[in-house]
Amino acid sequence: MPVSSSPSPELSGMPEGSERRALQLLIVDDDAMQRRLISIAAKQAGHAVTLARSCREAIEHIRNARFDCVTLDLMLDDGDGTQVLAAMAETRFAGTVVVISGMDAAHRSAARSYARSLGVDLQSLPKPVDLAALRICLANLGKTAMGLPVIHTWGGVVVDGVAARHRL
User: Fold this and answer.
1) Is there a cis peptide before residue 126, judged by omega within 30 degrees of 0?
2) Which of 25, 28, 66, 160 can pair with 58 through a Cys bridge, CB separation 3.0 to 4.6 Å?
3) pLDDT digit string (tens) for 111-138?
4) What is the pLDDT of residues 40-89, one digit of tens each?
């Protein structure tokens, strides 16, 4: 019997026969290895990827194309990721930003507050990026884009109930 690499519809939270929608993803990072890792993970999940190495490139892409999600490093060679957030607000960006940064939690939290003040939805992951966490984040964003509920999974096992039992 062949083994399927995709989870069954009941484990993925998707109705039988529904197709996943590829996200249009912009990856903004001046570190070539991080861009490559994030890109590979996103492409393996079936998403379309555009790369930017700088604030300037990111802002140009944001002004000229539509993205569902932007992964954003806060410290770039030619500026600060908050400049990219400001450009997103100017263009009325309606997607989600996932900050992937080596900065400490306080700086990532400050970026989240700034993004919220601009009306931009922002999540954050520390560097080096945990690819499993990134895959779950992208899967949940894909479900949200399709209007489906978010169900966190780990290795094909639904974990919402498990997490709830441990919050006592």
Assistant:
1) no
2) 28
3) 888 988 988 888 888 888 888 888 888 8
4) 999 988 899 999 999 999 999 999 999 999 999 999 999 888 999 999 99
Q: DSSP letters of the chain?
A: -PPPSSPPHHHHTPPTTPPPPPPEEEEE-S-HHHHHHHHHHHHHTT-EEEEESSHHHHHHHHHHS--SEEEE-SEETTEEHHHHHHHHHHTT--SEEEEEESS-HHHHHHHHHHHHHHT-EEEEEESSP-HHHHHHHHHHHHHHHTTPPP--EETTEE-HHHHHHTT-
Which token pair is 46? Answer: 């079936």
Nearest alpha-carbon partner for 122 in 114, 133, 132, 134: 114
Residue 51 neighbours by CB under 8 Å, 6+ apart:
26, 27, 35, 39
Half-sphere exposure (CA, 13 Å, Cβ side) for 120? 31
Greater model confidence, 141 or 71: 71
Query: Rounded to whole angstroms, how far apart are CA atoms 110 and 103?
Result: 11
pTM attached to this predicted model: 0.74
Separation CA 35–CA 58 (nearest Å): 13
Instruction: Compute CA distances 43 → 52, 76, 110, 127, whole Å.
Output: 16, 23, 30, 20
